[in-house]
Amino acid sequence: MGSNTTKIWDEFKKGTTYADSMGFTKEFPKITEYYEGKQWPDPTKKTKNLPRPVFNITKMFIDRKRANVTNQSMAINFRVAELGIMEETEKAIAEEGASLYSAYTQQLLEDMDMDEKCNELVGDAASFGTGIMHFYWDNSVQGGQSVKYTGDVRCEIIDPLDIVFARPKIKDEQAQEYIIIRSRETVESVKNLARSLGLPAEVINHITADEDDSTQAMGQKSVGDDGECTLLTKYSRKNGQVCFAKATKTATLIEERYLTPASNSAKPAVQPEDGDEMTGPEEPKPKEPEAHVIDLYPIVVMQWAPRKKSIFGIGEAQDIIPINRAYNFLKAMQLLSIQDNGWPKTVVKKGMLEGTINNVPGEVLIEKESQSIRYLQPPSPTTAASSVAEEIFEMSRIITGVTDVSTGESIGAGMSAAAIIALQNQAKTPVREMKRKYKQCWIKAGRILLEFYKTYYSLPRNITVGDHEEVKQFIGTSYAGYDFKIAIDVGEATEYADELTMTTLDKLYDRDKITLDQYMELAPSNVVPFKGKLQEMMKEAAQQQPEIDTTMGGMENVMQ
What we know:
Layout: H1 7-22, H2 24-35, H3 57-70, E1 72-80, H4 88-111, H5 114-128, E2 130-143, E3 149-158, E4 163-165, E5 178-186, H6 187-196, H7 201-204, E6 228-238, E7 241-247, E8 252-258, E9 299-303, H8 317-342, E10 345-348, E11 353-354, E12 366-367, E13 373-376, H9 384-400, H10 404-407, H11 417-427, H12 432-456, E14 461-465, E15 470-474, E16 484-492, H13 497-510, H14 516-522, H15 531-559
Antiparallel strand pairs: 1-16, 2-3, 2-9, 4-5, 5-6, 6-7, 7-8, 10-13, 11-12, 14-15
Helix pairs in contact: 3-5, 3-8, 8-9
C-alpha cells in the first residue's frame, strides 16, 4: 500500500490477506492443477525413469457431483405477491407484468448461456468450496429488429481468489459493507472506457500495465500480459442503495456512483413518449411507475459445504487429492515392477565380454568366460498394490457418494426404468442438500434480475410469450410499483426419464387407457424425432378412412 495507489486497490490488497491466512492462495491453484491432470512433480535425476500414470479421480468425482446437482432444469418465474388485496384492474396489470418478466427471463437466460454458467458455478463450488456469480449491465449488447435496443444484463463466474469481501466471516453476501472484484483487462480497453467517461488526459495517462499477481496464473504469464492491467470493481451501499466504483492500481475511473441509473441525476428514467409506436399495451394502462432503487448486490455466492465463520465453503477436492495421489503412486509402483521385469538390468564381469551391449533384439554376445553375463533379477510383482489401490478407490466412492448407481455405470440390464430411477434417487440423498443450495442460488439470481428489470429496462423490447409465440413488448419499469415473488420450477432430467415415459405410455396404450393420437402427442420428441410427420400422416389416413370403408362396403354389397 502506498501513496501512488488508489483507495480501492489498497482495500483489495488488504482483503487478500484473509485468503492468504486461510491457505486459499496455495490450495486453490493445486486443486486446479489436479483437476486439469497435472498430478506429478517435475522429474528429478533419481526419478526420471519412474512411470507417471495419471488416473484423474479428482476430475471424475467433481464432474459426477456437479452433474448430479445440475441435472435439474431450472426456470425462474415471477408471481404477484399481493394479488388477493388488489383491485381487478391492478390485478390484471400485475399479472401481465409477472408474465412478461417470466417470459423475458427465459429469453435472457438463453442469451446468457446460463446452463454453461451454472455448470461452471457448481464446478467451482465442488472444487474450491465456493462458486460466485456476478450480474452486470453490458452496454455492448445490441439487438432487436423492429425495436432496437442497447444494453442487457449479463452474467460471469468469478474465481474465488478474484473477489474480496469486507467481512469474510459473515456468510451472507448481502450483509457485506463492500465487495471488490478483480479482472484482467487490456490497457487500451480501460483507456477507452476512461475516454468514454470524459476523464482528463492526466488520469488516462496513469492507466498503465501492471503485473498479474493473481495466484491462479500459477507463475506463468498469459499472452499479452505486457499490455494488460488489473481492473477492480467495488460494490458498496449509500443511503440504502447499491453503489459501484471502478479503479486500476494507479487511476480511479469511476468514483462512487449509484447502480440505479435514475439515482445519478435529477431526471427520471427515460420513458417512451405518449403516442410513440413503441409504447406498451394500451388497455389497461399501468399506473405511473414508482421510483425503484437497487438495494441488492448483483452477486450470488454458493457454498458447497459450510465452513465455520466464513463466507467461503469447503469443497470436495481437498479430500479427494490425497486419495488421487496415493492411487497414482500405487499404480506407478505396479508399472515400475512390470518395467523392471520386462527390461531388467544386466550384470557383466569387467573384461569378460567382447564388444558392448546395445540391447538390439537378437543380439549375439560373446563371453570370454562362462557366466560372465546375467540379468539382475528384480523382486517379483506383488498384487498387494493393486488390491490396496482398488480398495482405496471403492472406499472413496462410497464416502463421497459417487457410486455405480448414482453415475449409472453398471445398472440398466434387466431392470425397469422406474427401478433404476428409484435406485438413483436413493443414491442421490447426500446430494440433495447441494441441490437445495443450487436452487437457492437461482432464487437469489431471480431477485437480482428483478432489480435490473425495474430500473434499467425503461425502453420497450419485443419478446415472445406462450406456446403460440405471441409477440409482446416488454417495458420492465412499467411494473416497478408491484411486488413479485420468485418461483423456481424444477424439472428432473435423468438419463432414464424418457425411457420411463415411454414405458408408462406403452402400458397405458396396451390397456386401452389412451388412444394412439394421445400416445403420439405425449411421446418425447427426442425419442420419436419424426413425431410431427407421423402425426400428419395419421391425420391424413384418418380423413381418408371413411371413404375407404364406404368403398369396401359397396364392394361387399355388390359381391353379395
